[in-house]
Specification:
There is one protein chain. This protein has 433 residues and is an alpha/beta fold. It has three domains: 196 residues, no CATH class; 82 residues, Cadherins (Immunoglobulin-like, Sandwich), CATH 2.60.40; 117 residues, no CATH class. Helices cover 11% and strands 26% of the residues. It is built from four helices and 28 strands. It has a nine-stranded mixed beta sheet, with no helix packed on it. Strands 3-5-7-9-11-13-17-16-15 form a nine-stranded mixed beta sheet, with no helix packed on it. A four-stranded mixed beta sheet has the order 22-28-27-24, with no helix packed on it. A hairpin with a 6-residue loop joins strand 27 and strand 28. Helix 1 runs antiparallel to helix 3. The protein is elongated and about 85 Å long. 39% of the residues are buried.
């Protein structure tokens, strides 16, 4: 891959700030973090940003794909390319040098798409996922364009086209013409309202409005069933989470990117109550704080692992299988491990939440239903398969038979008949509670 610095030295992406040129065609460059600066000279390349505020420039190419991913990125489109800002507050130059024919999405967050600067595009760029209440359109085409009313804005088939003097500039898919309004500003240049900014001369990007995130009130988890702290950002900014008080002993940890609470290795087995202060930041406004109560109640085990009020071999048994597999191999359950294995409407749909739910019952096998065959262990090779068979019979309304469990239990266990296993699992089946 021809990724090099200005002196022609080959570069390998690092987690720091990389500054280089991707030269050639049909290549893929995966950046690893930091505030990267990459110029693309060539066609049909793909550059994937990572964490950090990246600047990716494909002005000189055709058919290139730019993925900003996380961070507040600045992306320059080429001809017939694909641009996706990802998460964060991104600035996208859709038509530098009059380039056109690209498909552009700002992604999540409050974004600015500059649809024309100095030159009309050779063909209209298509903008997808534009959010009229969050995103902005910028255009500067002096001397022909001086104000919003100089633009021709027409709607057809659910899409809106922005044109000037008969030349289409941009097509906004799924956006009504009435949703586009001129930007108004205060004396300092701050945006007050509207989403289309017409500028005479050079575009100077204004500070964008920002609203602080909010933390959902009255959140509570039991010590044996921790979950994910819920917070919402009106601007769809990426949020970070931290425990700032109530954790002097270090029993609890929080994922800084997802807000998932977990127990640390130093946490005691016995349930412990706590009041945690959680700080949530959008990286712009001052962090907001809220409290989360941890009760000293140890949850009662249920085969409803994903928290959707049902227990199924198609979801819950598979989640238990994945969880016990990670325990066998000494690794951490990940979101990739459980992808597609849960009901999206459930209360526990992240690996962290499922781990937090099952860990207490794995650490004390006498407290729940993971050791199905009663051999004082919990394994994906036996217990998870027994749970799968049991839940399958529940789904089809039949009785678990000894043939159903043949070879699936430890012969040294206390429960090695279908009747014994059914008696053991029935209290943990939600419908029987």
């Amino acid at each position: 891959m021809a990724f090099m610095d200005n002196l022609g030295n080959v570069l390998v992406p690092t987690t720091g700030a990389d500054n280089g040129i991707l030269q050639g065609d049909d290549q893929t460059l995966d950046l690893l973090g930091g505030n990267d600066l990459v110029d693309i000279i060539g066609d049909n390349n793909t550059v994937n940003g990572d964490e950090g505020n990246d600047v990716l420039d494909s002005t000189e190419g055709t058919g290139n794909t730019l993925n900003g991913n996380s961070g507040n990125d600045t992306l320059f489109g080429g001809i017939d390319g694909i641009i996706d800002g990802g998460t964060g507050r991104d600035v996208i130059y859709a038509a530098p040098n009059g380039n056109g024919g690209s498909t552009i999405s700002g992604g999540e967050g409050r974004d600015i798409v500059l649809i024309a600067t100095a030159e009309l595009p050779t063909s209209a760029n298509t903008i997808t996922g534009f959010k009229p209440s969050l995103d902005y359109i910028g255009v500067s085409l002096s001397p022909n364009l001086k104000e919003f009313t100089d633009l021709d804005i027409t709607e057809a088939n659910g899409n809106t086209t922005i044109s000037l003097d008969g030349t289409d500039i941009a097509i906004l898919e799924g956006v009504a013409a009435d949703d586009l309004t001129p930007v108004t500003r205060d004396a300092e240049g701050n945006i007050l309202s509207g989403n289309v900014a017409v500028v005479e001369g050079e575009i100077v990007l204004p500070p964008l409005p920002n609203a602080a995130p909010t933390i959902t009130a009255d959140q509570s988890f039991s010590y044996g069933q921790l979950g994910t702290v819920q917070a919402v950002d009106p601007d769809q900014d990426e949020l970070t989470y931290a425990i700032t008080d109530g954790n002097a002993e270090g029993y609890f940890a929080i994922n800084p990117l997802t807000g998932a609470l977990t127990l640390t290795d130093t946490a005691p087995t016995e349930a412990t109550a706590a009041t945690l202060t959680i700080a949530v930041s959008d990286g712009i406004a001052a962090p907001v704080t809220g409290t989360v109560e941890i009760t000293d109640v140890v949850s009662t085990f249920s085969l409803d692992v994903d928290g959707d009020s049902t227990a199924s071999e198609a979801t819950d048994a598979l989640l238990i299988n994945q969880y016990l597999t990670t325990k066998t191999f000494g690794v951490t359950l990940s979101d990739d491990d459980i992808a597609g294995l849960f009901d999206p409407t459930g209360d526990r749909i992240t690996a962290a939440a499922i781990t937090g739910y099952l860990d207490p019952f794995y650490n004390d096998l006498t407290s729940g239903g993971l050791d199905v065959d009663g051999d004082s262990t919990a394994s994906e090779a036996t217990d998870a398969l027994l749970i799968n068979q049991y839940l399958t019979t529940k789904t089809f309304g039949v009785t678990l038979g000894d043939d159903d469990i043949a070879g699936l239990f430890d012969p040294a266990g206390d429960r090695i008949t279908a009747a014994a296993i059914t008696t053991f699992l029935d209290p943990f089946y939600p419908a029987a509670a």
